[in-house]
Amino acid sequence: MKSLILSASAAALSLATLGLGVAHAGGVTATLGATYYEVADGSDPDFNTNSTPNVLVGSTLGVNGLPVATAPYGVNDVDPTTHQIEWWSPKLDSNVVKTGTGTITLPYSSNMFAPNSTGTNDESFFETAVFKGSFSLAGPGTVSFTLGSDDDSFIYIDGVLIGENPGVHAITTVEFTSPTLAAGSHSIDVFYDDRQNVAASLSLSADSDITITPTVPEPATWTMMVLGVAGVGGVLRRRNRLSPSAA
Asked: Are residues 193 and 241 in the same domain?
């Protein structure tokens, strides 16, 4: 297997943006950006019920970046036009409410109770979450994952489903390996949901010394970008005021 070259710190992220890599020894930490949602118990027909979505390995994410189900869908919350599962979209499903953002590091293992995996039970709310990141390969190779969840979980590389652990079930762990990936940058998307009042958990690890960086800038980064743009705008306005009028 080819070695994986990825970035971990802010400096390394800048290098990755330029297409450069940072070599690491073993034990490198991977980081994924997290977006959390919750669904109130009793509000949605797919929650606190026993059902399994029909999502095929090899299928691609839909137009809104959500898993796509294939008929027979197996669950109710499927967009009638795009066939996307709506458990991670307040826009498509009014029962879904966004509760926050953050990051997780791999290897990851945690209870998944709302809000934002900080709760102690799912008696009132069920948590759903999306985790996103990116990585680079120095050469063609594969990446193997171990995924455990209670309940549904799906993992996509470059928008293609490479492994899943679907349905309402006790903690179940699966292992799978991606197809051979080309050298260069790749995206990873992990979808999770808790759908029954019993337990809620997610665990995820990757082989090799892989580091995955969040694909979405953290709030502090966005603030710096906004202030930077505002500063440039202010300079341009001052220059325009000081410039003599054209003849």
From this structure: no
